[in-house]
Amino acid sequence: MILTDLYPYLILVGATILAVIGWLLLQANAQNALRRDLIKLNESVDFDLPDFLRQCWPVLHKGGFVGLQWRLDWFGTQLSQQLGSQGDTVIEQSFHNDDIALDIQLFAAKSGWERRYFSRSLAEHFFLLLRMDFWIKLGSVRSTFAQAAKLNVFLQHDFKNMLQLTSLASEQLQNVSQQHHERLLQVLRTTVPALRDRVELMLHRLQQDEGRLDNVPLSLALYFRESVHAHQLPADIDGDVQVSCKRVALQSIVDNLIGNYLDMASKQTDTGVKLDIHISQENGTATVSITDTLAKPCLWPERLFEPFWSEHGTGRGVGLYQSRQTAMTLGGDLKIEADANQPLRFLLRLPLGPV
After folding, report:
1. CATH 3.30.565.10 fits 213-351, yes or no
2. Whole-angstrom Cα distance, residue 290 to residue 286?
3. 257, 289 in Cβ contact below 8 A?
4. What is the pLDDT of residues 288-339, one digit of tens each?
5. How distant is the alpha carbon of residue 171 from its chain centre?
6. Which ranges of 63-112 would DSSP assign to H, the alpha helix?
7. What span, in angstroms and rounded, lies between the C-alpha atoms of 305 and 314?
8. For the chain, where are the E strands, in sequence order?
């Protein structure tokens, strides 16, 4: 009699349990669908961290998050974005390396335990994809540099052989009788030693011997003036500061910067290039500001210092990255300012004295 009276309650409890299980399964299926959407989005942007961050918010918003905020240091370029609002619950994560640093926060509204569980699960999946993109980029950069280092060894060997042969030919030409082929010998006496000097310089660079060279006082205006003249680019150069550093290092920075504008000039034939270079000093630091006054706003400033990235796929994509690394080695830095609807501006900072 008592058991019979309990049947309706047992049926109600069982139905409630089934309904809860069914609801949880529906939520789990919805979360799995959102995870798949994040994976597909990541694949569609080729596992590119900045693009993935810019496009992930619609999927996260469907997952119940009310806000997203992130700050990214991408090879020296600062990027940030804030979407939605700040909720009651925050889930945050950070990834840091020498070249890339990411701080990200996800905001969720106040909810029950089951919604918090699914939100946390989706956030962890999202952070896992970000971490994967983070290490994919670093791995590809390091792998390419490792291959370049291996190639560097072979190049050193080849150039060393070339230097030995050139030096031997130069010594033999110095001892040839003046009565035979005088004109040819005169040309060779000039050209072969010059070739030898250039090969020696290339070999020193490959072996990084320039690190042993002395710091000397160098005029920034002179180096920029010579570079724009060599690249045949119009430029207004204002001011001058002397810095004490290695000649090869400064020449590399200047040539890479100006060479970048030469590449731009070959692409934008409708507007041309007009450089405005301003040199100043403050608190023991020299600052060089470089702007192409005729340029259009840059659409991808975060890519400029990214190694092995080239706008048209025709360059090697290491010039600006190398310039920034060299400037940092000298105790300075190379950054960009990309204001809305304004031409891009490079800011090169170097200490007046050696570090």
Report:
1. yes
2. 13
3. no
4. 999 998 888 888 888 888 887 776 655 567 788 888 988 998 999 999 988 8
5. 46
6. none
7. 16
8. 65-74, 77-84, 89-96, 100-108, 216-219, 235-238, 242-245, 275-282, 285-292, 333-337, 345-351
